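Lab channel / #folding
Pinned by the channel admin:
"Please post every new chain as: sequence first, then the C-alpha cells as a reply. Keep commentary short and put observations after the output so the thread stays searchable."

First post following the new format, from NK:
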Amino acid sequence: MPNPRPTSAEIDLQAFRFNLDQIKRLIGPERGILAVIKANAYGHGAARIGRVLMQEGVGHLGVATVEEGAALRRAGLNAVITVLGGVFPEQHDQLIEHDLTPVLYNLTWAEALSKTAAGTGTRRSVQIKVDTGMGRVGFALEEAEQAVAQIAEMPGLELTGVLSHFADADLQDQAFTDRQLRRFVELEERISKQGIQVPFWHLSNSAAVMNFPGAFFNMVRPGIMLYGYPPSESFAGKVPLKPVLSWRTRIIHLKEVPPGTRLSYGGTFVTRRRSRIATLPVGYADGYPRRLSNRAEVLVGGRRAPVVGTVTMDMILVDVTDIDSAALGDRATLIGQDGAEKITAWDLGRWSETIAYEILCAIGARVPRHYLE
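Reply from TO:
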C-alpha cells in the first residue's frame, strides 16, 4: 500500500543510472569507482542506491561512519564498504563484525586495530588517508611515507588503498588543486619505490572527475554528481547530469485574507492586497530550512509561488493569489520539475545561503522516499 503522506521524495533511478554512466564514460573502464553514499546517499536512501550501484557493477561503497556501514550490511549489501570518516578503537569489534574497511590516519589507532584483528585471527582491509591540503584528517606529508610502510607491515591488517581529499577542486582557481595533486603523485612514486603494493590510489571527488582527468589514478570517489548535481554552480553544463530527487507535497489548506494580514510566527510577512494563501504540510522538521522564510518559491500548477512568512516546524505558507487554478489538495513541488518550470537543490541552497549538498542531506527521515524505475 503506498504511503498516504502527502509530502514525499521521488527518487528517479533511471536518472541515477544515467549519471553513473556519465562517470564511467569520463574515467574509462580501467578505473574503479568508490561511490560515496554517506549521509543516507545524500538523502536519497543508501540501501536502495547501494543496490543499484552493485547491479551496475560498482563494488566499492563509501560511508562516513561505522553505523552507516553496519546498516548497509543489515540491508544485505555485500560490497566493499569503506568508512571514510574514521573509526574509534571502541568500534573495532563492530567494524570487524560487519566486515568494514576503515580509513586510518594515526598510528596509535592503527596499532589498536592491528591488535584486535590479529587476536581474532583475521586480516582486516584498511586504507590510509594522507592530508595533501584539506586540513581535516590524514597523515601529514612528512610522515605519510613512513606511516604507510609501518601499517603495511602490521599483523592483522591488509593495506588496500591510499587516498586524499581535494579542498578546492570545485573552484575556478586551480592552483591549490594542482599543488595537492603533485603532492599525491610524489607520495605514490616514493611508496612505489619502496616496493609497497597498494591496490588503489584515489583522490578525485566529483569536481575532479568532471575537471581533472590527471587526478583519476586507478579509482575515483564521486558523490554529488551521482545524484545529478555539479559540485558548484560554476560547473553547470560541464557534464550532462539529471537530478535524481524530486520533493513534493500537497496543499492542505487554502484561504483568502484581506490586505494587512500578518502571516506565521512573528508576522514577518504582511499582505499588501487581498491574497489567496496555501498551507503546505512541510517544514524545517522535514528538512525545509527556516532560512527559506520569505525567500523561496515552490511550483503549483507549473507556476512559481513565493513562500511567505516564517517556515515553521511542520508547515509553510505560499502565496497563490496569481495562480487562479490552485485548489485544495493540489500538488506543490519544492524540488523538481512542473511543466516548463524547475526548482533545484542549488536554488534552495542559494535562497538559504548554503549549498545543494546540505539541502539534499537535510531532507528528513519522516519524508518517505518513493523509487521510480
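NK: Residues 1 and 342 are 29 Å apart (CA to CA).
TO: also worth noting, The chain has two domains: 13-232, 245-372.
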